[in-house]
Amino acid sequence: MDIRNCNRCGKIYAYDGFNICMQCRREDEEDFKKVKEYIDENPGANISEVSEETEVDTRKIISFLRQGRLEVENKDNLLLDCERCGVPIKTGRFCKKCTAEMQREFKQSIGGGRDPKDLKNGRAKEKIRIIDRYRDK
């Protein structure tokens, strides 16, 4: 069992893949629900207004946007930039164009430039014929 300190509150907890304890995650989830409800009721609100009304820090709201849990509807309120090309985006870390390019690049690197149809379980199809084994003997 891996024991760690919570990055936010400092409490000791059993590490479960997250850098914060269960209590801090619950608080994050409550904050997310408050922000989501406010945005649903006030779709044109900017981040400072949302932060002020929900009492949730702007950095946490931006984190929700980066995680893809929230999306900016109004083009005037675009806060995020694609981490790869810098174009303004509504949610996440990358724009659609960069996401598509990276997916293509990852597929090519995994397949080594081979056609993905020829891949089976991450390896190229290999055919071994039993008759060929015994022919040499």
Describe the structure.
The protein has helices at residues 22-41, 47-54, 58-66, 96-111, 130-135, and strands at 3-5, 12-14, 80-81, 88-89, 119-120, 123-124. The protein has one domain. Helix 1 (22-41) packs across helix 2. It has a two-stranded antiparallel ribbon. The chain has a two-stranded antiparallel ribbon with strand order 3-4. The protein is mainly α. A hairpin with a 2-residue loop joins strand 5 (119-120) and strand 6. The longest helix has 20 residues, at 22-41.
SSE arrangement:
Blueprint: E1 3-5, E2 12-14, H1 22-41, H2 47-54, H3 58-66, E3 80-81, E4 88-89, H4 96-111, E5 119-120, E6 123-124, H5 130-135
Antiparallel strand pairs: 1-2, 3-4, 5-6
Helix pairs in contact: 1-2
- The best one-word shape is flat
Task: List the total number of helices.
Answer: 5
Strand order of the largest sheet: 1-2
Distance between the termini: 54 Å
User: What is the helix fraction of residues, given as a range?
Assistant: 40-55%
Average pLDDT score? 84
